[in-house]
Each structure stands twice: as structure tokens, then as C-alpha cells.
Amino acid sequence: MGEGSMIQICMIAYTDYVIDARVIRLAETASKNGYSVDLFTPRKKGAKRREAINNVNLYRLSVRPYEGFTIAGYIFSYLNFFCRCFFIISILQLRKHYKIIHVNNMPDFLIFSAILARFLGAKTILDIHDPMPEMYVAKFPTKKKGFLYKMLLLQERLSAAFSTRVLTVHEPLKRDVLIKDGINPDKISVIANFPDEEIFRPIRHFPISNQIRLIYYGTLDIRFGLEGILESIAKIEQKDNLYLKIIGEGDCQSSIKKLIRELMLESTVDFENTVYPLRQIPVFLTQFNLGLVPYRICPATSYMLPVKLLELIAMGIPAITVANVPIRYYFDESMYFAYDPERMTSLTDLISRIIDNPALILEKRQAILSSRHRYLWKHEGQKYLKLLNSLS
Predict the structure, then answer these.
(1) Are 109 and 128 within one domain?
(2) 340 contacts 320 by C-beta, under 8 angstroms
(3) Do both 363 and 274 map to the same domain?
(4) Band of the pLDDT at 148, cuts 50, 70, 90?
(5) Structural domains counted in the chain
(6) Which pLDDT does position 258 carry in this prediction?
(7) Model confidence at 221, in pLDDT bands (50, 70, 90)?
(8) Cys-Cys link to 317, which of 59, 238, 305, 312 (CB 3.0-4.6 A)?
């Protein structure tokens, strides 16, 4: 259909679009199925202000995403992005008549940037990737559940109440967190974060040599416990038979570089301090036969279904992870290796055992390949289209 007859959707996401798998999948699913999608994000240094990517109209606003350790820094950046979204979307609503405004958290209160659009007839979707009260506790573990925690809980409830529909990323998060936080369960739909099977295909040739090739890629944040991972690896006696690649950016990147030097792991651990666009990830994953998806146990990570774990499974690569609530909900233990983050010697022992018996990786891979069809985006994409059609 022509652009004039296409249903207009606006998406808002405080993220770097080219590396955010969920936002990409949602936007492209809509754009491939008869919707015209305008998507607003902050603008990283050097990025274009406006471009079209796979028929998604991307607008990067003059707000730099905040990366730091202070609450005030996050609040200022969020409010700056909120104000710019409010003015731009209010103006565009008068011209484009968006039928749906889809807001990805964090923060939840970005949904109120669509208040005029909602008044003029647009439907609103709040997509809760991560629950803000729990993420606050994870990001600032020394803070108590005091006034600010209660305010985050309040803004989550108000944001959900303002929304026409609420989305979230998996069933346990809906059941055990969002409903208990006070969100109406009848409003919540689950669109799981399963990977795009057209991008993440199974590796056909999967040789395992004497050296185990292990990879971590993603955000470098305290909640992932990478310092403890490096200390555990330093205790492995067979380090000559292990190669770990770390790829990512984040708050902990300086401490990771320093710790690699202090533990004399330069010959075992290769740290690449960068991030890759989503479609480049499968290219480098083909070089590895084991993934690492670690984290510390806290209110946020206990209900995190890691996107990286899902991507690895889609490619038939077993992973070492922590068996939290959603991982146990979706996956049989035959599909992953698990360690206890409260007892990091369990990770040392696990990796040592895998080095001594690499056939363990092939056993996990076989279990993954027989079940991976259950965890692909095509099923979730159809659910999302059904929701869009019902709202538009």
C-alpha cells in the first residue's frame, strides 16, 4: 500500500537503536506488515540525526545517553529526552495522526510524552523491558528501598494506568513482578524477547579443538559480576586450553581492563571495548563454541531472561549462566551449564570440567538444536501484529 494509506506508528526508546534487538524486531515487524514506523531515540556521538533503516524512519534527538553511576545523571538525561519527545511528538501528531504510540522503557514515564497524542485519539503501549524499581536496586545496591524506590514504583503504576496496553518480555516477570507491583493483569501482554531466526541461524560446522573458545558480549555493568568471573578464571589450572573473548562497553570497562592486567590474564582473556550492531553479532559468534551469560543475584537479575542467552541458543551455542526463575521456566537444564554466583568456585570447577571433557558441550548443543524452534521471533512477531491490528 502507498505511504499515504499506511497506518502511522510512533515508537520511543531511550536506547541505541542499531544494537537493541527487541526494539529492532518490533519496529521491523510493524514496518514489514503495512505500518509506517517513526522511531525516536537519543543520539550517540557521530550518529546520523535521521536515517531510514529497513523501512523504519529513525530520528535521533539531541540527547546523549547517560552512562554513569549517579542517580541525578540518569534523571537529568531521562527528563531531557522526555521533554524533546513530548514537543516533537505533540507537533507530529497533528500532522501525521499516529494511531499507536509504542514506548519502550526505561524510563516508564516516557509514556506521558504521548499525552497530547492520546488526547487526540492515539492508543498507547508501554513496553516494560526491565522493571524500574528492581533495576534501581540492581544499579545502586547500596541504596535502601526508601523514598526514591517508592516513587519509581508509583511512576510505574501511573505509567501503566495511562497506557492502553502494557507489554513485557516474559511470563514470570508479568506473574511475579508487574502484577505484584500493582499493574492490572488484564492490561499486560507478553511478547517474549526471542531472537530473529533470519539473523541468528544455527552454526553448521561446530568443531571443538583442545582449546575451549568462550565469549561474553554485551553491557559491562556491575550486576553481571564480570570481576568475579575473571577471578574465577584466574584459578583455572588449564588456562592454556581456554580462550575468553569479552566484547562490550559500560560502567565497568575500566575495572575489567585493570583486573585482566592484575590477574595476568592477558594470554587468556581478550577484551574488545566496543559494541556491534545486531546483524554483525552472528558473524563473530561463529568463532566460538561456548557462551558466557553471567550475573549477580538481585531483584532485577532474578527475573531477567537474557537476550544474549536466547541468541546463543538460536545459533546452537551452549552457554554458562545462572539458572534464575525465567531461565528455569523456559528451558530444560539439559540446554545450558549453570553455576552458583554465591559460590564462584563452582564456576572455576565447571569450566575446568568442560576443558577436561569438551564432549559436554556437544551434548548441550544437541539438546538445544532439538528445541530451538520454540524460542524464535516468528511466533512472538505474530502476537505483536495481532495486538497492533486490534489497536489500529
Answers:
(1) yes
(2) no
(3) yes
(4) confident
(5) 2
(6) 96
(7) confident
(8) 312
User: Looking at the DSSP assignment, which residues form a beta bridge with residue 269?
Assistant: 244
Summarised one tens digit per residue, pLDDT across range 47-72 is 899 999 999 999 999 887 766 667 78
pLDDT category at 1 given cuts 50, 70, 90 is very low
Is residue 325, in this structure, part of any structural domain at all?
Answer: yes
Indicate whether 281 and 330 sit together in one domain.
yes
Q: Is pLDDT of 171 > 90?
A: yes
- 290 pairs with which residues across the strands? 214
Are residues 309 and 217 part of one domain?
A: yes
Calpha distance 332→112 (Å, rounded): 40
* CATH assignment at residue 8: 3.40.50.2000
Give me 56's grid cell: 523504519
Nearest residue to 381 via CA among 196, 198, 129, 170: 196
Q: Is residue 199 part of a domain?
A: no
Cis ω on the peptide bond leading into residue 326 (within 30° of 0)?
A: no
Average pLDDT estimate for 371-386: 96
Together in a domain, 269 and 186: no
Residue 205 has pLDDT above 90, yes or no: no
Residues 138 and 106: their CA atoms lie apart, in Å, by 14
Domain of residue 81: give its range. Answer: 3-194+376-391
φ and ψ at 184, to 5 degrees?
-60, 115
**Same domain, yes or no, for 316 and 186?**
no
Q: Mention every residue, 6+ apart, whose C-beta is less than 8 A from residue 262.
A: none
Residues 185 and 237 in one domain: no
Neighbours of 57 (CB within 10 A): 17
Asked if residue 275 belongs to a domain, the reply is yes
User: In this structure, are 236 and 350 located in the same domain?
Assistant: yes
